[in-house]
């Protein structure tokens, strides 16, 4: 059973210019005192073709964590445009929010991100070289894909931990088997019924998510 549950994530400053930082307001609950820090990461999938282009935008350690509810804002810089293939600059990609304990990842929340020009003429005739200063980033905040991994939360070494994981606590996957999340067709819209939150940038992850 997981000792940490993410109850809500709000995507701040969304939509926003491509070069603005990513900002996530994260609310999570800790069931027991954790002696070690939780490591949170924001990862930008620069290309669906290869994980080699994935960028860790930032990581932060939070802890030690006492039992109870906690909230913080995780901000990370925009991706390095030099590491984004030209063919993948405009269109749908993915940003990942992950959390690990003792270097063991136990949850991954993936969001589709649509990068497009706001100018109608540039939409119709995009430049051969992407102009990132004219791109708008829109995170589909109400349609995350959540993957939960069972880990051992104790202080045993890795080999012991593997043997002591409760295998009845199977990995839970919400349409995300890896970083390579398949993007929806460009015309496909996200039904407004997906997700429960305060607004279009908020989702209560403690509630069931439609797959």
Q: What is the CATH third-level topology name? A: Immunoglobulin-like
CATH homology superfamily name: Histone chaperone ASF1-like
Strand content: 35-45%
What is the count of structural domains?
1
Describe the model.
With 211 residues, the protein is mainly β. It has a single domain, classed as Sandwich (Immunoglobulin-like). It has two helices and twelve strands, in the order E-E-E-E-E-E-E-E-H-E-E-H-E-E. Strands 2, 4, 5, 7, 8, 9, 10 and 11 form an eight-stranded antiparallel sheet that branches. It has a four-stranded antiparallel sheet with strand order 6-3-1-12, with no helix packed on it. Strand 7 and strand 8 form a beta hairpin. The longest helix is centred in the last third of the chain and has 7 residues. The chain is elongated and about 55 Å long.
Q: What layout of secondary structure does this protein have?
A:
Layout: E1 4-11, E2 16-17, E3 22-30, E4 38-45, E5 55-62, E6 68-76, E7 91-101, E8 104-117, H1 120-124, E9 135-139, E10 145-148, H2 158-164, E11 172-173, E12 202-203
Antiparallel strand pairs: 1-3, 1-12, 2-9, 3-6, 4-5, 4-7, 7-8, 8-9, 8-10, 10-11
Could you write a compact summary of the structure shown?
The protein has two helices and twelve strands.
């Amino acid at each position: 059973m997981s000792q940490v549950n993410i109850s809500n994530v709000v995507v701040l400053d969304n939509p926003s210019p491509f070069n603005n930082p990513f900002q996530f307001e994260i609310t999570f609950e800790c069931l027991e005192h954790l002696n070690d820090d939780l490591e949170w990461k924001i990862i930008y999938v620069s290309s669906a073709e290869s994980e080699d282009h994935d960028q860790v935008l930032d990581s932060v350690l939070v802890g030690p964590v006492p039992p109870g509810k906690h909230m913080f804002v995780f901000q990370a810089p925009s991706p390095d445009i030099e590491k984004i293939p030209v063919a993948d600059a405009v269109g749908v990609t993915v940003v990942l929010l992950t959390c690990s304990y003792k270097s063991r990842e136990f949850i991954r929340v993936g969001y589709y991100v649509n990068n497009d020009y706001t100018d109608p003429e540039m939409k119709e005739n995009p430049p051969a070289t992407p102009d990132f200063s004219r791109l708008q980033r829109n995170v589909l905040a109400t349609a995350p894909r959540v993957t939960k991994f069972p880990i051992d939360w104790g202080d045993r070494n890795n080999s012991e931990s593997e043997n002591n994981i409760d295998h009845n606590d199977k990995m839970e996957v919400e349409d995300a088997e890896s970083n390579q999340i398949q993007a929806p067709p460009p015309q496909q819209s996200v039904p407004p019924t997906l997700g429960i939150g305060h607004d279009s940038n908020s989702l209560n992850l403690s509630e069931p998510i439609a797959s």
